[in-house]
Amino acid sequence: MMHTRRKFLQTIGIGFGALMTASFKLSANTPKLQKPNVIIIFTDDQGYQDIGCFGSPKIKTPNLDRMAQEGMRFTDFYSANSVCSPSRAALLTGCYPPRVGITKVLFSKDSIGLNPKEITIADMLKDHGYATACIGKWHLGHLPEFLPTKQGFDSYFGIPYSNDMKIDPKATLADDVKFNNGMTEQAVRTQQPKKNFVPLMRNDKVIEYPADQSTLTQRYTQEAIRFITENRSKPFFLYLPHTMPHIPIFASPDFKGKSARGLYGDVIEEIDFSTGEIIKTLKSLGIDENTLIVFTSDNGPWNLKNGHGGCALPLRGFKFQTYEGGMRVPAIMRWPGKIPPEKVCSEVAATIDMLPTIAHLTGAKVPDDRVIDGKNIWPLMSGQKNALSPHQEYFYYRGTKLQAVRVGKWKLRIEKEDELYDLQADISEKNNLAKQEPEMVNKLKAIMNDFDKDLKNNARPAGKAG
């Protein structure tokens, strides 16, 4: 494994010996910071079961399994939507997606994005003295006014939307842009854009087109290690939303063909290795004990029969759905000395809780001029005795429609018919109890109607270009 790590670091442009030598010198002199560093690793369409410690029978994830052993695994952790753009808006703003006007997947033809007037985790922490970086898939608006550098991030490196999309012919190209696959600037400006040909950006300019997707996970890791190393002596926030395993999936040559789960497994195992390298970097720099790491997914997996999609078992459903498999996601949190090791939390928590929780931990100010739906879940994360979920209800939106609510063990889902499930006894949502429990159905419908009405009366608009 040491050889593999050395080869990986060399591949991504970091000399193993140089890094370790510098690390040992730094670790002895690095002061313990009062403000913790925060890293959020956000995968794309990774299924609930697609980590060893969540039950994957074939995918090997030793680093994530160790992260769970050294921290806490959340079994009832939710994204706020079952597709990309809304789930990312929710994570960064602490709000259900319709609250901030991002209710659908954004494409390169769209002229909307996350409103710059919204306060993201990055905005909040940057105002609190943090260095901030977004590395990976953005997908909250590709136009200049919506990019990460306009949403609280000091720097951005990544793909502005999903990797199966197309370039905007009006995209700003860097002077030294690298063209692959025979592309030219003239082709970008005049030819019909090709599906799966996506731009790699640095800040607000395209630096490579089409991006070599087989090396994205490696290059994201390189950027992450560089950012951490450069900001080791001050508090930082790193948001690392991986492009993978959204389709089309790619793994680098070092990982391709290695997993018993096929190419999808290769992709997850490379992300696992990347996570391990980030943790090793924190340890080598002496800042591991001052860094909170959150690992989770944006939503459930694709329902594919070709082996390129993930697995949400034992949950029902997939991406695009408000069954548990579409929105309940794997989550692991680690902070040595602060989050107790080898713990499992089965209380309801969610990505919308990250903003208020991080504010609590860093001393930053939660926005008080607008509604924030997330709650502080530090009592859960820190393993406080008898700590309960701060969510009396948790809501499942699909687009602008409120389709489901969870209250304790009960979940009501309304689409073609009323569906009532006891998630404590029936995690797979197989036994519809709606006809047996009409009073519970009516009670939950009333809760849904009241919340949805209030949300829509206090909703804020998406940003519009121009």
Using brief descriptors, characterize the structure shown.
466 residues, alpha/beta, Alkaline Phosphatase, subunit A, eleven-stranded mixed beta sheet, four-stranded antiparallel beta sheet, 18% strand, disordered N terminus
Brief synopsis:
The protein has about 475 residues and is of the alpha/beta class.
Helices, strands, pairings?
Layout: H1 2-11, H2 16-29, E1 37-43, H3 62-69, E2 72-74, E3 77-78, H4 84-93, E4 112-113, H5 121-126, E5 131-135, E6 155-158, E7 173-179, H6 185-190, E8 200-202, E9 205-209, H7 216-230, E10 236-241, H8 262-284, E11 291-297, H9 324-327, E12 331-334, E13 343-345, E14 349-350, H10 354-362, H11 378-381, E15 394-398, E16 401-407, E17 410-414, E18 418-422, H12 438-457, E19 463-464
Parallel strand pairs: 1-10, 1-11, 2-13, 3-14, 5-6, 5-10, 7-9
Antiparallel strand pairs: 2-12, 4-19, 6-8, 8-9, 11-12, 15-16, 16-17, 17-18
Helix pairs in contact: 7-8
What profile does the largest beta sheet have? 11 strands, mixed
**Beta-strand percentage range:** 15-25%
Radius of gyration: 21 Å
Tell me the distance between the termini: 51 Å
Q: Spell out the CATH superfamily of the domain at 34-163 and 211-391.
A: Alkaline Phosphatase, subunit A
Total E-strand runs: 19
The amount of helix comes to: 25-40%
CATH topology of the domain at 34-163 and 211-391: Alkaline Phosphatase, subunit A
CATH architecture descriptor of the domain at 34-163 and 211-391: 3-Layer(aba) Sandwich
Query: Helices and strands: which structural class?
Result: alpha/beta
Shape: globular
**Tally of separate helices:** 12
Low-confidence stretches: 1-6, 12-33
Looking at how many chains there are and whether they match, the oligomeric state comes to single chain
State mean pLDDT (0 to 100 scale). Answer: 93
Name of the CATH first level of the domain at 34-163 and 211-391: Alpha Beta
**Adjacency order of strands in the biggest sheet:** 7-9-8-6-5-10-1-11-12-2-13
